[in-house]
């Protein structure tokens, strides 16, 4: 049996603790930690001092941690892409407005 502090818990261990309390087990690691911390504090458990007892097979691998980090990274990347698209769209609209103004000015000048 292995012992661990709150910040050392891996995703499967966090999910197991949440499941035992009848709480949702979905979300990123930070969300799981937050949910578990709130539940433990509501149970008057000092999260920083509490020692969790786990079976060795509950330990997660570095590959699982890397996959979660990549997923989080992809979410950030997608948000950055959306922000860039929005900015470009705004710039195109501004350019279109300027071109329309220039076109109007030129047609006015040719009529005179």
Task: Tag the structure with descriptive keywords.
112 residues; mainly alpha; Transcription Termination Factor Rho, Rna-binding Domain, Chain A, Domain 1
Describe the protein's architecture and organization.
The protein is mainly alpha-helical and 112 residues long. It has a domain at 2-60: Transcription Termination Factor Rho, Rna-binding Domain, Chain A, Domain 1. Helix content is 66%, strand content 5%. It has helices at residues 11-20, 29-42, 62-111; strands spanning 2-4, 52-54. Helix 1 (11-20) runs parallel beside helix 2. The N and C termini lie far apart (92 Å).
Strands, helices and their partners?
Blueprint: E1 2-4, H1 11-20, H2 29-42, E2 52-54, H3 62-111
Antiparallel strand pairs: 1-2
Q: Describe the strand arrangement of the main beta sheet, using strand numbers.
A: 1-2
The poorly predicted ranges are none
Q: What does the overall shape look like? A: rod-shaped
Strand content: 5-15%
Structure summary:
The protein is mainly alpha-helical and 112 residues long.
């Amino acid at each position: 049996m292995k012992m661990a502090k709150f910040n050392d818990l891996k995703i499967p261990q966090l999910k197991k603790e949440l499941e035992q309390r009848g709480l949702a087990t979905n979300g990123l690691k930070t969300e799981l930690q937050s949910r578990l911390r709130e539940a433990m504090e509501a149970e008057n458990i000092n999260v920083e001092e509490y020692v969790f007892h786990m079976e060795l097979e509950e330990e997660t691998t570095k590959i699982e941690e890397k996959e979660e980090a990549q997923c989080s990274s992809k979410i950030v990347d997608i948000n950055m892409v959306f922000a860039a698209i929005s900015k470009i769209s705004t710039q195109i609209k501004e350019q279109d407005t300027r071109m329309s103004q220039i076109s109007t000015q030129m047609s006015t000048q040719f009529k005179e």
